[in-house]
């Protein structure tokens, strides 16, 4: 089934699971053709930034590299308002939104692991009669399979609402309740940044390729260094223009 036929609105099951766990996974959110095209695009950008001596003879990077996406290659603008993620982001943010940051990443074996963190405190998640109100919502698009040992995302389900700090824990084991999000290439993880989460060590022989798009309500600002180029905003229309900051709308 083509990706643009997968999700037109958030389902009742997705609403329940997002409130319960703080995240949902959309399987096969990208077609095989999209996966290949975006992965090739990441490699093109990475080769511009990573010195030639830091690549293997097979054309794989020796170092983890993350690149700000949309200002470097307009192809990645398609992810800003992708028909699978857009209705989810719109409902979860709860009002007209804006893109806070965006990166694409290649992660080889034995990468440096990002520690456990939240992008925002639990005050950044709410649900009332009007719906969800999330101050920071992240979409991770997976362009390679991520099973045990491949460096899957780790998350603590329900921690977006927990007002009790977890007891002491090791970075490797994670807080009590830690779960690895097992995905395949083309899957999409959407989660509240109020959830405790962390990267994981890639112990496989494969390079992991991910794309990260982070959203919030229209009254927040993009992270420093992530403001979309003026020409991209000027050419954008509709929801994309709103998300790029080209016409913020305040709704009480």
TrEMBL record:
Domain of life: Bacteria
Keyword match RNA-binding: no
A Pfam family matched in the record: PhyH
Gene Ontology terms, MF aspect: dioxygenase activity
Coiled coil: none
Annotated InterPro entries: Phytyl_CoA_dOase-like (IPR008775)
Matching Gene3D superfamilies: q2cbj1_9rhob like domain
Presence of the UniProt keyword Oxidoreductase in the record: yes
Keywords in alphabetical order: Dioxygenase, Oxidoreductase
Entries under PANTHER family matching the protein: ECTOINE DIOXYGENASE, PHYTANOYL-COA DIOXYGENASE DOMAIN CONTAINING 1
Protein name: Ectoine hydroxylase-related dioxygenase (Phytanoyl-CoA dioxygenase family)
Organism, scientific name: Microlunatus panaciterrae
Organism phylogeny: Bacteria, Bacillati, Actinomycetota, Actinomycetes, Propionibacteriales
